[in-house]
């Protein structure tokens, strides 16, 4: 029998949110009955009994601590997912050997909170280096890349017609526009009018405010917005040539799901060097990396187009080597077994 695990995270939405998807993958493969507690400002306090999930509003501090005091003892291993500065969960946890998956950069926090963690699972080498710089001993750090379903996400021939980039990391709030790089993408579209940029826009958060803020940027005709959820994300990747991500430093997931899912579909990535896997993607020839400027992105885009077939082939190869779901599950399964002993 696998060891009992309790999972702890922030926002909860397994159909949309990347860390929720990772937890659901581990639950399905290793610990089907493992409970999940999700604590974040965007959550509504609610017990989803059939799913085994408790969502807590970010205002329910005392309830989080009370739940942790009881629920954590039901498991032999505690597994939390979040950022480098995930102090709100670390203050409440630590009664069992604790794994912290660090998926999002952030400023270092009190070392005494880090001392509660048995193993840090960094989702990129860059995050592992940041943890070391924050004083975490290297022997307490593992690099475990997130995994995707390589059987479901399959390559397909590139579409015909205009070269098209996909941006699938839309903000829930207009305040995130700059950090997610929306103005930068619109400027890129102006610099390269022969390239289309498709924005997949999920219906979440302040949708009306997002529409107004986007209109205020006056995007050119080669920026297309597709509003609504995408039932089959694979088909969305197959309709484009590459995926683009241009987050600000220390913002967003260090290993964006849209990038690794695109790689699995044979779609190379165009990334600013502020993305946590930009160096890996560029070194493996699975895309191009650029400074976080419109001019830098435009130059990298030209290089991506010039060697597109090579980059596309290497995209799938990188996904198979680094982002295999089976390897992701096996790495955490071995970690749980060791810590439970």
Overall description:
- The protein is an alpha/beta fold and 341 residues long.
- It has two domains: 5-147 and 324-340, Glycogen Phosphorylase B (Rossmann fold), CATH 3.40.50.2000; 163-322, Rossmann fold.
- Helix content is 38%, strand content 20%.
- It has 14 helices and 14 strands.
- The protein has helices spanning 18-29, 61-71, 87-90, 111-114, 125-133, 177-180, 182-191, 207-216, 233-238, 257-264, 278-283, 294-306, 308-322, 325-340, and strands at residues 5-9, 36-40, 46-48, 53-57, 77-83, 98-104, 119-122, 141-143, 163-167, 195-201, 223-227, 242-245, 269-272, 287-290.
- An eight-stranded mixed β-sheet has the order 3-4-2-1-5-6-7-8, with helices on both faces. The chain has a six-stranded parallel β-sheet with strand order 11-10-9-12-13-14, with helices on both faces.
- α7 (182-191) packs across α12 and α10 packs across α13 (308-322).
- The longest helix is centred in the C-terminal third of the chain and has 16 residues, at 325-340.
- The two termini are 13 Å apart.
């Amino acid at each position: 029998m696998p060891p009992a695990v309790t999972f702890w995270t922030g926002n909860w939405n397994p159909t949309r949110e990347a860390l929720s998807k990772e937890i659901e993958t581990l639950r399905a493969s290793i610990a089907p009955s493992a409970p999940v507690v999700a604590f974040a400002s965007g959550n509504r306090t609610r017990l989803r009994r059939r799913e085994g999930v408790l969502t807590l509003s970010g205002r329910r501090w005392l309830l989080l601590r009370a739940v942790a005091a009881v629920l954590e003892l039901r498991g032999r291993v505690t597994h939390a997912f979040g950022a480098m500065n995930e102090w709100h969960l670390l203050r409440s946890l630590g009664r069992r050997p604790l794994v912290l998956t660090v998926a999002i950069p952030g400023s270092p926090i009190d070392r005494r909170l880090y001392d509660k963690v048995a193993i840090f699972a960094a989702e990129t080498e860059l995050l592992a280096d940041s943890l070391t710089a924050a004083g975490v001993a290297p022997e307490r750090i593992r690099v475990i890349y997130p995994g995707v379903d390589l059987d479901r996400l399959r390559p397909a021939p590139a579409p015909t017609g205009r070269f098209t980039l996909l941006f699938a990391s839309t903000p829930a709030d207009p305040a995130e526009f700059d950090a997610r790089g929306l103005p930068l993408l619109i400027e890129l579209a102006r610099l390269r009018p022969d390239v289309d940029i498709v924005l997949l826009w999920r219906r979440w958060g302040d949708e009306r405010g997002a529409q107004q803020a986007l209109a205020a940027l006056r995007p050119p005709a080669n920026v297309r917005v597709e509003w609504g959820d995408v039932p089959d994300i694979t088909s969305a990747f197959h309709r484009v040539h590459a995926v683009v991500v241009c987050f600000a430093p220390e913002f967003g997931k260090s290993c964006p799901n849209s990038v690794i899912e695109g790689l699995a579909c044979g779609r190379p990535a165009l990334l600013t060097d502020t993305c946590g896997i930009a160096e890996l993607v560029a070194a493996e020839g699975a895309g191009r990396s650029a400074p976080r400027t419109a001019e830098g992105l435009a130059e990298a885009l030209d290089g991506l187009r010039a060697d597109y077939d090579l980059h596309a082939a290497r995209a799938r190869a990188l996904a198979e080597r680094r982002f295999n779901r089976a390897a992701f599950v096996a790495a955490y399964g071995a970690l749980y077994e060791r810590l439970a002993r």
